[in-house]
Amino acid sequence: MTKPLIVITGASSGIGAATAKQFAAAGHPLLLLARRVDKLEALDLPDTLCRKVDVTDGAAMRQALAEAEAKFGPADAIVNNAGVMLLGAMANQDPEEWQRMLDVNVKGLLNGIHAVLGGMLARGRGTIINISSIAGRKTFPSHVAYCGTKFAVHAISENLREEVAGQGVRVITIAPGAVETELLGHTTDEAIKAGYQEWKQQMGGVLAADDVASAIAYAYSQPQRVCIREIVLAATGQQA
Hints:
This is Oxidoreductase. The protein is of the alpha/beta class and about 240 residues long. Helices cover about 45% and strands about 15% of the residues.
């Protein structure tokens, strides 16, 4: 392979799928991970290994990575994109929804980092790209647990960057505002979903998944000596 392996979690739709298409177009082999492997395969990208993996299962992630690296060579980057957004008022929300967000958004992110980091440190290069949110920088109504997980992503990313910067590994945080993806569909409170949709309309539209994928590709494409630590992007009409 003339270009190195890129790993993308949550690659079956939205930002993950858009990112996979952009990296494939640039000539990178890919390891795509998601629970819906049929959707990964439907992307029909060249030099791509698709595996059904829940990011909360660290052993499964490591196994898939070993298989991909045996085929395509060492992973030069991971895009930790898998995430769930379950909005709800704290007094009424099912605690199982908090746990699901913590498991996927925090533990899943840590599993992704852990899977690739040892090899990157040994090679003295690599890029870890963590998908957070503007909700990891400020709060929003009905976002208490979700904001908590995304604030955690920001803290984990910056602390990790400080830890590995001297060993040639970059850590990048991507913090989008509202994006047109399946993410809102995970929320079970219909009134909150309706309000969110109205908010998106009031701002005149939101980001497309391709917009975020382009930001990811831009940050990765910089020379290894350049680390764009964080990109915050949102639709121009998004005030919050």
